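Quick one: structure tokens for this chain, please?
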Amino acid sequence: MSTVPEKRWPVVLHHADVTLRPMRRRDAGDWEQVRRHNSGWLRPWEATLPQYSSPGPQTYGSLVRSLNRQARQGRMLPWLIIYQPEQHSRSNRPVLAGQLTVGGIVGGSAASAQIGYWVDQRWAGRGLVPTAVAMAMDYCFDVLRLHRIEVAIRPENARSLRVVEKLGFRSEGLRPRYLHIDGDWRDHLIFALNSDEVGDGMIKRWDLARAAQDHQAVPGPEPREAS
């Protein structure tokens, strides 16, 4: 069952076998190992900086400090995706399985944000990303009272397109050369949902969809798409 915390960072969300929690400095070893093992898997969808941009954080510790500072300021929600494998797996301890960030949070007349994510290839195809996205959206709509959540996905990223399809996102068309990904400006398809379009919530929507999928073929894995 999902838990909905108060509107104060740090925020931890739980649902079924997935937890969203803030990055910690002691996660450095696990985070760097997962990123290293998935470098080829993630590279085509990896956010990069144009040559004229100022460099970002140079170490894991500085990255954590920067993200958590922005989170305390209400500008973003930088979460790790923690997965609890099933009891019959070789390892049933919680593992760092990916990352999800709600960024570009604005209030006022827009009251909107964007979601980006990546997942460890060995845990792809288990529904972790749709679960994480659904949890994050319920928090944004129910607690932060945002109106709109957007996801930008490269047209070539078929697996990530399946995430928004599973969750019932609305397509809003193509934005040419929208984000700097894998070393260049790339076209992105835009998908969005407004708070008044999700009925009883995203987790409930996803749980119902997943139950229906249990009677069908197992879906393919989801890589990441960052905004």
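The chain has a mean pLDDT of 89.
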